[in-house]
User: Fold these one by one.
Assistant:
Number 1:
Amino acid sequence: MSLLEVANLSKSFSTRRDFLGRRTGWTHAVHDVSFTLDAGECLAVVGESGAGKSTVGRMVLRLIEPDSGTVTFDGENVLSAKPHRLREMRRAMQMIFQDPHSSLDPRMTVADAVTEPLIVHTDLDRTARQRRAGELLDKVGIGPRYLGRYPAELSGGQLQRVAIARALTLDPKMIVCDEPVAALDVSVRAQVLNLLRDLQEELGLAYLFVCHDLALIEVIADRVLVMKSGEVVETGFTTQIYSDPEEDYTRALLAAIPDPIPRSRVFRASSLSSPTRSPG
Ligand SMILES: Nc1ncnc2c1ncn2[C@@H]1O[C@H](COP(=O)(O)OP(=O)(O)OP(=O)(O)O)[C@@H](O)[C@H]1O
């Protein structure tokens, strides 16, 4: 049994209403999407803008309610879970969003952002929470000296590291990464991508990695699910998708890669977490 099993997921959004407020127009954002994700595996969901990737990621965590289909996480039905149980399940299923400026509260210090899940989900005292936050900031390569800072004092790359630390607070089994480097400067994308990959290896994390750019996923994804207009076009191991794609659409996505991240710019986490290094 896989860690995550998604079957026949569909979702439409209403896009227009008539003068009485009745829904008259629909976008079929996701149609009949199925896939599995094993523990410790990274599955990239790729496709151009509007393909339905983010909607799939959000439905897996039930941040958006699907119209139909099933989502099973660790053997449990996510879509029928009662609110209390869903809250418990979400300890193990976290999400990292594209823009850390909007995913982190500007009024909360880094320490507050990272420890908030511990306040909600555990009975650790303040000292233990601060210690855990310091450990997590070390793990993501920015160190505990940032604990008292506010988001406005950090760069985009540093903020995304804080968002990653926050996602790790409750020892999740799976993280939905929704375009986690798309909003970052090109110069720090490889660093954050490699941090994610090294954390995955170290902690045995599974990633559902939503990404519009095939150039970015070669270094991190084990398998790829290609989506177009809400449907799955093709799925396969990353090496096979890159070397021998079956579908014209996948070939077109590959042909559109403008500037792949050279493997020489792929750093190890050990160098990222060095206190002497100044990450972006
Ligand atoms: N809340 C919503 N209301 C109406 N339409 C929506 C909503 N969310 C998404 N859509 C539509 O559903 C379709 C799929 O959107 P989605 O964001 O999942 O695509 P995506 O592949 O993640 O694209 P992008 O990379 O641009 O975010 C799009 O046509 C989008 O406009």
Note: Confidence is low (pLDDT under 50) at residues 260-280.
Number 2:
Amino acid sequence: MAAPMRGMSVLRQAFQGLVRPAGGQVCRQVQHRCYSTPGHVQVDMNSETGVATVRLNRPPVNSLNLDVLTELSIALEKLETDKSCKAMVLASAAPGIFSAGLDILEMYQSTPERCVAFWRALQDAWLNLYGSRLITMAAIEGHSPAGGCLLAMSCDYRVMAEGKFQIGLNETKLGIVAPFWFTDVMLNTIGHRETEKALQLGALYSAQQALSIGLVDKVVPLAEVMPTVEGELKNWLQIPAAARVITKTSMRKAVLDRLRSQKEKDAQFFADFINRDSVQKSLGMYIASLQKKKN
Ligand SMILES: CCCCCCCCCCC/C=C/C(=O)SCCNC(=O)CCNC(=O)[C@H](O)C(C)(C)COP(=O)(O)OP(=O)(O)OC[C@H]1O[C@@H](n2cnc3c(N)ncnc32)[C@H](O)[C@@H]1OP(=O)(O)O
């Protein structure tokens, strides 16, 4: 039997038929299909319910580098074209963390070519997620700063674990600026006034604070995050899909089109901005502060 997964009772896993086959990877019998397990993005498709669980799996903190973003994009594309898939839960395989956001090392002392490739991968992953026809829910079982917050906000519904975890767009604290499409998503989520404050301050919120400004939809104990998502999904799955998809698309189209129409310019702008001496200096100091935390 596979080791119990966080936030999921042994009984529930036994019921769902979790087994560890000869290859050593966790797979599910009968109604579950694992799209991918060896990389940084695990996809577990339940063909009976039409719900896929996509878990970021890049310990220790699921920082989003070029590989992770490319894998996430491909996974989302596959699910989008899978007619049996109705919903997707975005979660983490790393304890205590949803995602630490973009991999800062992709932005520090990198080449302009790599920066552009990295940014394109982020753009594609986000366009696939925010523009998805699927019901998308974020199971936030840990910290979710910056790019992690973007991924969560890009889902249709967010359930966060109570306790010490934080979520927010903290870019200004790193001496960088949230791109316009990060801002657009936050505006659509919590409104203009809260976004202005949140972005200028680079605010990181506790789960309760996030709930109070509408950044997340529900806060529950850690072990209840997945069951709560599953319960909420039942409501969403009852809505006629075509009507829901048209509604979602019409509400998100302007923001998606804004990036689609200037992807290359945005990628070039990112590479130029990030390679400024002042920005590199700020990032260097931030990396040092993360490392100092340990000593
Ligand atoms: C005019 C407009 C112009 C716009 C142009 C564009 C500008 C650029 C826009 C870029 C947008 C950026 C988005 C981002 O996502 S930036 C990333 C921001 N992320 C963070 O600030 C999170 C930092 N991490 C933490 O706070 C903590 O790690 C965390 C709370 C998440 C977890 O804490 P914990 O104690 O559990 O873990 P550690 O801190 O010990 O970390 C473990 C190791 O992981 C390394 N680490 C952490 N986060 C990252 C990261 N994001 N990238 C890379 N590496 C990371 C950390 O250093 C530890 O490493 P070591 O074990 O080697 O020390």
Note: Residues 60-61, 63, 96-97, 100-105, 143, 145-147, 170-171, 174, 176-177, 179, 269-270, 273-274, 290-291, 293-294 surround L4XM7KOE (CB under 6 Å).
